[in-house]
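Folding follows sequence. Below is one example:
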Amino acid sequence: MLMRNRDPEYFIKSVRMNPDAFDLLLSKVGGRLEKFSWRKPISPECRLFMTLMFLAHGSSVYVTSRLFRMGESTVRLIVYEVCEVLWDSLVVDYMPEVDKDKWSMYSQEFYDQWNFPNCCGAIDGKHVSIQCPPNSGSLFFNYKHFHSINLMGVCDANYNFIAIDVGGYGGNSDGGIFAYSEFGRRLVNGALDLPAPGKLPGSNEVMPYFIVGDAAFPLKNNLLRPYPGVNLPPIQDNFNQRLSRARRTIENSFGILVARWRILKNTLVMLPGSVDKIVKACVILHNFVKRNSANDYCPPCFVDQVDGDGNVSEPGEWRTLVDPLRSINSAALQRGNNATRSAYANRDVLAKHVFERPI
């Protein structure tokens, strides 16, 4: 049986995780991976390492089975089980429910790092390519002409995922992906426990705390999107640039995720329920490894570098390794955009505020 190599360089090159981080991860999930049999069972250490290799390199089940000298069905069962255990064991510590204090902390980080006040996170939706499931018709066939499931994610200013929603039909075109997601419902219904509206820095203007998204998302009091159109007035054009700068965090978060867990680059040949397990495991591993092995997993050059004006001066290294996941179109994300007058007014207030305070 192939066992774990203790050479740190081997780990760094394989899964961008140093041995200490691997041992910590094993201590958290090893007990649930322990098997008992009259024959010598596959050790939790080997089960975990094989799954990390499968997710990080994006190899097929066949290649992984040859590398570890196991049957294909055995590899498949182990990978699915370990992915489920990873999510269940890590989600409480590495993607917990967010309260007011946490949202306030995220908002301060966005202001300190991206100079965008009252912003608590950035949201985007992506397609994860899959093979057409049996008897599914056009449910998973999206407008870009491939089969997929939807992955919606929210990140903080440091490229960590705060929340995800995974598993929606890629062919969903009724505008309900955002509205019917758990995060979307809470956001629209004001149930995210965001802080109460507060004054903008250096101003007496009161502004709700909000999440930022691109033009595909609806405009709400607690969800801001750019001004539509071209040749905009300077205030609106400046606002769009500043919002884009803050929203770039979610683009980079997805980029890092796919660059490090390359199984997501592939068309996943498995049932949708198994795809959900793979995707959730990759996201929670992203948060885990970034916290415990940050220098190896996401060095500074790996994300977009910006200049003093907020423009990208040097694209992140992840862009040279993988293509970004394809975004979900606006028709699928939102069911109309009947924004309230207060939502338009809030965006105008913030646009004026950031225009008067250049980067």
Confidence is low (pLDDT under 50) at residues 1-6.
